[in-house]
Amino acid sequence: MNNKVTMVLKNFSYTLTSNLISMLISIIMVILVPKLIDIREYSYWQLFIFYTSYVGFFNIGWVEGIYLKYGGQKFSSLNRNVFSTQFWMFMFYICLVSMMIALSTFLWVEDLDKQFILYTVSLYTLVTVPRGFLLFILQATNKIKRFSRIMIFDRLLYCVFLLVLFVFNLVNYKSLIYVDLIAKLITSILSIIICNEIVFSKFVKIKVGFKETLDNINVGIKLLIANVVSLLVIGLVRLGIERNWDIETFGKISLTMSISNLLMVFINAAGVVMFPLLRRTPERKLPSMYSVLRTMLMVPLLAILVLYFPIQDLLSNWLPQYSESLKYMALLFPMCLYESKMALLINSYLKALRKEKWILKVNLITLFFTLISIFTTIIIFNNLTATVISIVCLLAFRCIYSEKILASHLGVKVRKDIILEVALTIIFMLSGWFVNETFSVFIYLSVYGLYLIVTRKEITNTLSILRAQINMKSDL
């Protein structure tokens, strides 16, 4: 147990370093880029980021199947010949996809800016999706140090390129896309070098390769569809904003969402470590682990919401042209709460338990409500505020519904915790939207203090377990 705790802490430190660098760069981008380029340029850059967030769907379940099938295994135990064949078959397939994106753009897209964005999306697909194949294998086999090296180098390269752009005053949405592509290309080559033993091995027979491919896709397709639907929950709402209003409104709301999601880098750091750990944990221990992990996650997350107030004030002064849209942070900031719990805790557990069908079911139901929400808030009422609120409501619904299903399977009680978290979220949103900043901070901190009192037993129990683990480790 102590060795496992030590390994988890080491792996978490690697991914935390990687994601901390990503967060710092994200902060720089959030603070400086909107200041250096106009709203329209910024909006096109956000549109590129929006489109590239979906390129992983071209995996068609192939990579997800490998992740689920081999999650928890040792890297050294993998059949190198099989994986080498899989990689190059996957690479050939992605080349075809990239060409199809470029050809479709040439034939059907007339807007020059959107043409440029889609052409670069095709290049982004060619460069990053095969890299993702290797990164998934490293995560699944708990080679977190190798994974983190690649991600750290990617972000450091990007940071250097950004500094060059800033120094020579070359910042525009096209240059931002170019440097991102260059950084991704270099780190894709690095990932191939790091994983050379499974990239440059002998091929198995083509019949065996196709059989393995079909099996991987069959295993991973449910998770892929679930991930597609998951991104569509927010993606369709954002697309509705871009189509119903204008590119500038899309950019302003995207900025607000980017700020609200900064916290996710820390959660992703833990999430990378969590899946292989849970796969190697006996199922009988999962319920007790869930209660401890849940408390460890939610108590600080609910506290971090208070950071909204100084952040909103500082950014409104720094980016006055965005001050009108930054007020929506009061409504969007809690999305990090529900997205974090889904990414780190609930989905990690469901994947470890091989319950991809449950993930898909919840996401499909949420997508159904998303379509109703879009029809109501955008098409009928044409109300931007209601549309923004719907994002948090949809994410909250998905998180709560998923947790209820998981908790029922594990036999743990979460009803009281869910009610408390929803209450704090509503109070945060109402006070942030309707009340002045000083009084809002007082209201939320007072309510959070009551939350700590109500959940003091769970917090004390979690601290005792952590303290016991630390003492056991120090006695070795």
Give a description of the structure.
The protein is mainly α. Helices cover 84% and strands 0% of the residues. It contains 21 helices and no strands. It is globular, with a radius of gyration of 23 Å. It starts with a helix and ends with a helix.
Present the secondary structure layout.
Blueprint (H helix, E strand, L loop, with lengths): L1 H35 L2 H14 L9 H9 L9 H29 L3 H29 L3 H24 L5 H22 L1 H4 L6 H39 L2 H14 L3 H16 L6 H19 L3 H11 L4 H4 L2 H4 L2 H18 L3 H25 L3 H27 L4 H20 L2 H18 L1 H19 L2
Summarize the structure.
The protein contains 21 helices and no strands. The chain is mainly alpha-helical and 476 residues long.
Number of helices: 21
Taking the sheet with the most strands, its summary is:
none
Q: Span from first to last CA?
A: 12 Å
Question: Mean pLDDT, nearest integer?
Answer: 84
Principal-axes geometry comes out as globular
| Structural class by SSE content | mainly alpha
Instruction: Let me know the number of strands.
Output: 0
Percentage of residues in strands:
under 5%
Computed CA radius of gyration, to the nearest angstrom: 23 Å
Helical percentage: over 70%
Topology order in helix (H) and strand (E) letters: HHHHHHHHHHHHHHHHHHHHH
Low-confidence stretches: none
